[in-house]
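Exostosin GT47 domain-containing protein: structure, please.
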Amino acid sequence: MALMVLNTSFKGLFFMTSCTLIILKVTFFFITFIPSTSKLTIHDHDYLHFDMKPPVDQSAKSFNPDILTHSQYEDVVRILHEEQPTSTHVDGSNGGGNSPEVTGPPWQRGSGQHSMVNTSQAVVHDGGQPSAGSSKPSKKGRDLNNIEVYHDKDIFLENYEQMNKSLKIYIYPHQKTDPFANVLLPDTRSSPGGNYASESFFKISLSSSHFITHDPAEADLFFLPFSIASMRHDKRIGAGGIKNFIKDYISTIKREYPFWNRTGGADHFYVACHSIGRTAMDKAPEVRINAIQVVCSSSYFLQGYNAHKDASIPQIWPRPGVPPIRHPSEREMLAFYAGAMNSRVRESLVRTWMNDTEISVHQKRLKTPYSNSLLGSKFCIHAKGFEVNTARIGDAIYYGCVPVVLADHYDLPFADILDWSRFSVVVSTEDIPFLKKILKEIVDSDKYVKLQKNVLKVQNHFQWHRKPIDFDTFYMVMYELWVRRSSIRIRLFNE
Ligand SMILES: *[C@@H]1O[C@H](CO)[C@@H](O)[C@H](O)[C@H]1NC(C)=O
Ligand SMILES: *[C@@H]1O[C@H](CO)[C@@H](O)[C@H](O)[C@H]1NC(C)=O
Ligand SMILES: *[C@@H]1O[C@H](CO)[C@@H](O)[C@H](O)[C@H]1NC(C)=O
Ligand SMILES: *[C@@H]1O[C@H](CO)[C@@H](O)[C@H](O)[C@H]1NC(C)=O
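Here you go.
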């Protein structure tokens, strides 16, 4: 069925291509007309960012990447981070964040009709609909409490509305009988759980959303539906086979469909949450260079991720229902951290604060429920492990605990929409010895109360639903894709 639809549209598309297919590239507000006789390939994304781009140097450690070979460069990066090589990555590397949580009594996890304040919907639905079609945001009637978590709420809402109306995604179709259906199709039978749930939730949400089109001609973007986490668990592929699988998959897409070659993949995207995804494109460098990579491991220090082209997706442990509420005054512990010791940052954190009575740090899973600590602390520390990302930021936000981000070079999720300084504290890993001073100053001023309130306002952006709900993580990712769609196609018939 899907195939028939496809064949028909293909014919139409080839016909139009032979007439003249011109791709217009839109960069910000400037439209560049690029003359072309038939087809035009655009590499919208900066080639120079590939591989050897000198890292953004935030930590004042410097070296000259020009004199290094590729593998030397990787070594240097690794040594700078004093991490173990990627090949040692294992599931659950993020430590405590991978413990399945039973979060409080069932009435807290259920439909939430119990007194829980309307936190999950509080931010944007609060009379904040933009006036349709207005090009100038109206500043009138802006509720200061509401704009606080956004860089510019009006612009966000206006873009969001347009995105919601116009964005169209084409998913490469695969049959249920495909031997790799488990990797390529959304698994709608079971609810995804665990550390890498963001990967499967995205696919499930997308396939049930109104963004889908079966007509490639009207698609803004093409989704490569492979799942890295599923490949990893498939004995036929495994961690060692992922690179070849992707290489073969892209070759097939290139050969059997006309879409990839038109843009070199620039209007294609994939979603990956497992950290192994970072090297998964090694044998398909075009994906890394041109396609939009929506990944959890979004470090702009490391090769393979380009913040302006790719997008960060939050790693979220799914928790249904309305988040529990705990007032700041009842959060007695200043700060909390628990997790495996798999990075220098974590070691330094635990070594520095292990005997402290106000900052509670643990180098393994707690015997008491994780949720008690998240609800009982003012700040919840996210310390990078193998990668910059863990599920802890999502955990903290769910439990209304202000996240402390100890992960240098982390391109934080939705950072172009959300002003992270309004609901989190980003601390350089070099400032671990000053952590208590930094956090106490925030508590002693009014700032903590504001931060904590704002955490509740962003909760809806950090939640998955099987059927996506406006402004949830799925819609936020769609927004990020929409602002990154780099080309529009306009067909000119016999100009
Ligand atoms: C929930 O929100 C509605 C409308 O914004 C408001 O009238 C109501 O009082 C809120 N409920 C609670 C428990 O705060
Ligand atoms: C987004 O689109 C869906 C489907 O058309 C619609 O139900 C929803 O209200 C829209 N949201 C906004 C904020 O426009
Ligand atoms: C796309 O280009 C590749 C060469 O890079 C070629 O092998 C393939 O056949 C092309 N695909 C189509 C559909 O023309
Ligand atoms: C913490 O206490 C233990 C046991 O008293 C001691 O060995 C260790 O040096 C202390 N660590 C710090 C950072 O004070």
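Notes: The chain has a mean pLDDT of 75.
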